[in-house]
Amino acid sequence: MKPASFQRLLVTSDVELAVLRQSVRTAAITAGFGLVEQTKLVTAASELARNTLLHGGGGYVEMEQVTSSAVVGLRLAFVDEGPGIRDVEQAMADGWTSAGGLGLGLSGSRRLVDEFAVDSKPGQGTTVTVVSWAARHRAGRRWDGDSGTGHPGP
Ligand SMILES: Nc1ncnc2c1ncn2[C@@H]1O[C@H](COP(=O)(O)OP(=O)(O)OP(=O)(O)O)[C@@H](O)[C@H]1O
Ligand SMILES: [Mg+2]
């Protein structure tokens, strides 16, 4: 049985993209993510889901809370059965686009998450899987990670 935190959300329209962004935000808050961590994950999810919609012809996102030791995170998989990506390395390069975009969605989202994997087969589809961990749980104590100062919190 899937854990209670498991969600599958369709990505076949702009309205569903907006719903997805809100669902990711809510899941990130529930997982204890700070504001900056929430925003990084929502931004990455938005770009990857936009790719699912625009390049993959629509699909779905699976989201679930994960834990490793005492660390809480969120895993998201963006799945479509579209044309696939022929050259993943090229697609990951900053500025490369096949569709007149900025070519920053894949490369930018990779920098916003902790783990990132692309599984794509030409003619069969694409799955991009990402994981983000809640920084405040990483060291087993609360860090003021959102201030960007690099100093431990109180
Ligand atoms: N799910 C997908 N299915 C098929 N091709 C994809 C998929 N996701 C990305 N690609 C390919 O990788 C390229 C790079 O994607 P990326 O998101 O970086 O840029 P983009 O979507 O073209 O522009 P933008 O900066 O607006 O996101 C796309 O132009 C497309 O060719
Ligand atoms: Mg894109």
UniProtKB/TrEMBL annotation:
Coiled coil: none
Pfam families, per database record: HATPase_c
Record protein name field: Anti-sigma regulatory factor
Stretches assigned to the Histidine kinase/HSP90-like ATPase domain: 36-136
Top-level taxon of the source organism: Bacteria
